[in-house]
Amino acid sequence: MTTVAFLSGDRVTLRPIEEDDLEFLQEWINDPRIWRAIGRQTPVNRAQEREFFEEVVCGDETIDFLIDVDGTRVGIVGFNSIVWPARRAEIGYWLAPDHHGQGYGTEAAELVVEYGFDQLGFHRIEARVFEFNEPSRRLLESIGFSKEGIHRDARFADGEYQDTYWYGLLEDEWRTGDP
């Protein structure tokens, strides 16, 4: 498959998610290291992954990219919960565990944040992270997000309630590098 770059960084390329990517997406969304971190609690079969692709990825309510490194699929990044009148969106992402700790997620998040502020005109980008997901919290903080609050016991996982940490980044903070 030819990679059609929409956004390119030093090491990662962000491209549209295509039908050929569904097997990759289904495989990793069912990995406990992914589904726990993003808040899923039920498995996803092929039909459900296709439905996600057709209704969410191909819809107008989200903006989704596949993260590609030298022709290898490594994860996804994008915006959901977009509120156009308020110029606000939530960033979401995951990387296949084999690609954790290599900086790909950080670079992909930086690219999509820049796209959100420069091209989409967002004023604010938000993120939520479960308390046990320290790597994701570090990623957000490394690109300028500030922890704004905690929703206590907002998620039930592994037999106990988990807090959800909310992060935010304003356009002027991102431009000046001063959260």
TrEMBL record:
The keyword Transferase applies. It comes from Natrarchaeobius chitinivorans. Keywords: Transferase. PANTHER family: RIBOSOMAL-PROTEIN-SERINE ACETYLTRANSFERASE (PTHR43441:SF11). SUPFAM superfamilies: Acyl-CoA N-acyltransferases (Nat). The keyword Transferase applies. Residues 12-172 form the N-acetyltransferase domain. This is N-acetyltransferase. GO terms for cellular component: cytoplasm. It comes from the Archaea. GO terms for molecular function: protein N-terminal-serine acetyltransferase activity; protein-N-terminal-alanine acetyltransferase activity.
